[in-house]
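Q: What does the predicted 3D structure of non-specific serine/threonine protein kinase look like?
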Amino acid sequence: MTKITWKSIIPSCYKTKSKVEEEEVSKHCSFQRLCLSDVSITSSPKDIEDLSTSFVGSKLYTFTLEELKEATHNFSWSNMLGEGGFGPVYKGFVDDNLKRGLKAQSVAVKRLDLEGLQGHREWLAEIIFLGQLRHSHLVKLIGYCCEEKNRLLVYEYMPRGSLENQLFRRYSSSMPWSTRMKIALGAAKGLAFLHEADKPVIYRDFKTSNILLDSDYTAKLSDFGLAKDGPEGEETHVTTTRIMGTKGYAAPEYVMAGHLSTKSDVYSYGVVLLELLTGKRVVDRSRPSRERSLVEWGRPMLRDQRKLHHVMDPRLEGQFPMKGAVKVAALTHKCLSHNPNPRPSMRDVVKTLESLQDFDDVFIAPFVYVAVSEKK
Ligand SMILES: Nc1ncnc2c1ncn2[C@@H]1O[C@H](COP(=O)(O)OP(=O)(O)O)[C@@H](O)[C@H]1O
Ligand SMILES: [Mg+2]
């Protein structure tokens, strides 16, 4: 297959500061999605035509650094929404005055930290994946900026921020069970969509800080910097030598052998489900040593109804349907199987969670959380 260079895809990188009128990087078309592997970072430039026949159904805007400065009050500290491995994310505002044809809206602008560990490849991955994949449970990419070494991404703004902030923020009120289940279902639908694409996509970095929430708690996946095209043909996995992702969320076969598959995403999904059930972070050094790894501590109790109350988030104060919780716990247990084969597909996860959304069950009475003291 011919390689398409990123230079041909993103022409403005080479015409910094000049007005590139080619704002519409991608156009609606019925051709197959361009894979990350089709795009070479180093090979020589090739026709922009290749791109227009490869990007499917999206319109990306090219911004200048100046425009994004304007949109974010000069990347002011007070506009900062969060920060991950790529760099800081700022709230901004764009409209027709900034770019012709652009809808007036709040945006999130992610700026590459030039001193950081990530770089051009992750930036490009976000454009290749999010620029082409459109779904109600994936965050919308509006555009990008590429000037000299600067790399930025502009997304729709998600008013409730990340699940990490909502679930673990110290002074926030507890998230009700129904909201947790709505988020679990939305995120599962996003992952299922990626896994079932014509060319399956492995998300690779599924975790609470990459799940963003709309005002009504609709979950959307963001941060495709580490996403990867899935195996082709009969292959069950792709093998990688560099293990990337986040400690605690990565599947055992990926950490140990570099085997990456859609089932490794299912494991990470199971970790997030466990965090939703327990209200605890997957890794927390401040916890007692036997509870430090949430999976090792919680997994054995997930299939035992009598022990389930040890696992459930005490901040729920018992306000959850017992039958529903038992089913979600069993599903979590399956997702967290050490061996990838018994893990369910994300489609199966969606089906199970859909059957639980309006679970008509009596809520059990508030219970007192009893911390079992270790007797020596
Ligand atoms: N579209 C957005 N709307 C609101 N907050 C966002 C948005 N995108 C990112 N954030 C915030 O910034 C954090 C880091 O963003 P992310 O895309 O995960 O960056 P990284 O690739 O560096 O991990 C998120 O956890 C979230 O708190
Ligand atoms: Mg992130």
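A (community wiki): The structure tokens above were generated from the sequence. The first helix runs from residue 6 to 9. Residues 6-156 form a domain with the Phosphorylase Kinase; domain 1 fold (CATH 3.30.200.20).
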